[in-house]
């Protein structure tokens, strides 16, 4: 995608051929700043602190982190130790483990002196795969938006509500939930996006920044406005991303997604989930009991970050000093509330039968 007319991916190899560059997402949308990550500890910190976020992007950056670890020490012991360390940084999204497992499988049969080179090549392949996967997700999701547009009066936009950020900054490029929207806009379709703020980290601001940079009409709204918009006929479809989808179609995504699905069900509005193959976890049957939900710092709830009156960026406390806070970062939307899944292989129902038919090699 583009920033001020210049195309970017969300992660790329630095000129030294060893380090990687990312955008510091804790600085967005107020400032566009690049970070250079040169070892696995820096990668782990960037993931843990959410300088890099979004399930597919975390996987890609984690893969490069493991390659950096092998450059320092190519032993199998270090491979396993570093993979375990990186995997612990964000437990809910399965893409990270998928990418680390893929690096481990790619290097094990190489002699020690070839392992780092093989790991870097595999990390690059993971990035290229993510880009093409998300492009195809956009193509399949675009057909949904076209169907809605065909039923609407001339001049009335297709109105999409999304939650959190599942755009190109959360992936290597294109995004998952936003990929159909970008492709619809680029094809000349009249589309408008309702952007949830997504407390407490306000990832909706990243979605708004992305959409604005690309020229897509959108409106930033509070998390609790979605139900009201649906009740008043102002939403045609809900499309969200996901951090893990189970074999029966349960969906783990940013906290608040479940409430959007409930409101969509009550108002007969289709609720679609966009996911790449790396997000599908066929080892889990019951998302509610088996998916680990990351509990993040209470400081993310009691304080919020934004631009200060004098122009700087900082945090201000919004809760009483004496009040404790809880911060579950994700929730699980049961498959029964999901209209369908948008994958790179096509659209399907949120069920074990449909997913098994689409991904037989994962069964």
Structure description:
By secondary structure, this protein is α/β, with parallel strands linked by helices. The protein folds into 2 domains: 2-129, translation initiation factor eif-2b, domain 1 (Four Helix Bundle (Hemerythrin (Met), subunit A), Up-down Bundle); 136-362, Translation initiation factor eif-2b, domain 2 (Rossmann fold), CATH 3.40.50. The chain is 39% helix and 19% strand. The chain has 12 helices and 18 strands. The protein has helices at residues 40-48, 55-72, 76-87, 95-107, 112-151, 179-186, 204-214, 226-231, 257-266, 287-290, 299-302, 352-358; strands spanning 2-3, 6-7, 11-13, 20-23, 34-37, 158-162, 191-196, 218-221, 237-240, 244-246, 251-254, 271-274, 280-281, 303-307, 313-317, 330-333, 340-343, 346-348. The strands form 5 sheets. Strands 8-7-6-9-12-17-18 form a 7-stranded mixed beta sheet, sandwiched between helices. It has a 4-stranded mixed beta sheet with strand order 13-10-11-16, with helices on one face. A 3-stranded antiparallel beta sheet has the order 3-4-5, covered by helices on one side. The longest helix has 40 residues, at 112-151. It is globular. The protein starts with a strand and ends in a 5-residue tail after the last helix. It is an enzyme of class 5 (isomerase). This is Methylthioribose-1-phosphate isomerase.
In short:
The chain is α/β, with parallel strands linked by helices and 363 residues long. 39% of the residues lie in helices and 19% in strands.
């Amino acid at each position: 995608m583009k920033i001020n007319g210049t195309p970017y991916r969300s992660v790329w190899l630095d000129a030294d051929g060893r380090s990687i560059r990312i955008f510091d997402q804790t600085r967005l949308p107020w400032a566009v700043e690049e970070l250079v990550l040169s070892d696995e500890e820096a990668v782990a910190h960037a993931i843990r602190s959410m300088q890099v976020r979004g399930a597919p992007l975390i996987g890609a950056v984690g893969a490069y982190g493991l390659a950096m670890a092998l450059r320092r020490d190519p032993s199998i012991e270090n491979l396993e130790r570093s993979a375990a360390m990186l995997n612990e940084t964000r437990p809910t999204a399965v893409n990270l483990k998928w990418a680390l497992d893929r690096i481990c499988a790619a290097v094990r049969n190489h002699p020690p002196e070839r392992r780092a080179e093989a790991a870097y090549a595999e990390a690059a392949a993971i990035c290229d795969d993510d880009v093409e996967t998300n492009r195809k997700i956009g193509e399949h999701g675009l057909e949904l938006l076209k169907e809605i547009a065909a039923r609407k009066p001339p001049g009335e936009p297709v109105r999409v509500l999304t939650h959190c950020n599942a755009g190109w900054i959360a992936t290597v490029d294109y995004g998952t939930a936003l990929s159909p929207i970008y492709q619809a806009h680029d094809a000349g379709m009249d589309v408008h996006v309702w952007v949830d703020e997504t407390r407490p980290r306000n990832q909706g601001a990243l979605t708004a920044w992305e959409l604005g940079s690309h020229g897509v009409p959108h409106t930033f709204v509070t998390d609790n406005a979605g139900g009201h918009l649906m009740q008043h006929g102002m939403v045609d479809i809900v499309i969200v991303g996901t951090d893990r989808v189970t074999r029966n179609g349960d969906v783990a995504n940013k906290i608040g997604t479940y409430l959007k699905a409930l409101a969509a069900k009550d108002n007969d509005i289709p609720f679609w989930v966009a996911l790449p193959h790396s997000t599908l976890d066929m080892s889990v049957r019951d998302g509610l009991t088996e998916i680990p939900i990351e509990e993040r710092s209470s400081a993310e709830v009691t304080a919020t970050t934004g631009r200060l009156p004098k122009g700087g960026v900082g945090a201000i406390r919004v809760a009483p000093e004496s009040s404790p806070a809880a911060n579950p970062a994700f929730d699980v939307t049961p498959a029964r509330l999901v209209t369908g899944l948008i994958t790179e292989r096509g659209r399907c129902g949120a069920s074990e039968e449909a997913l098994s038919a689409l991904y037989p090699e994962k069964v």
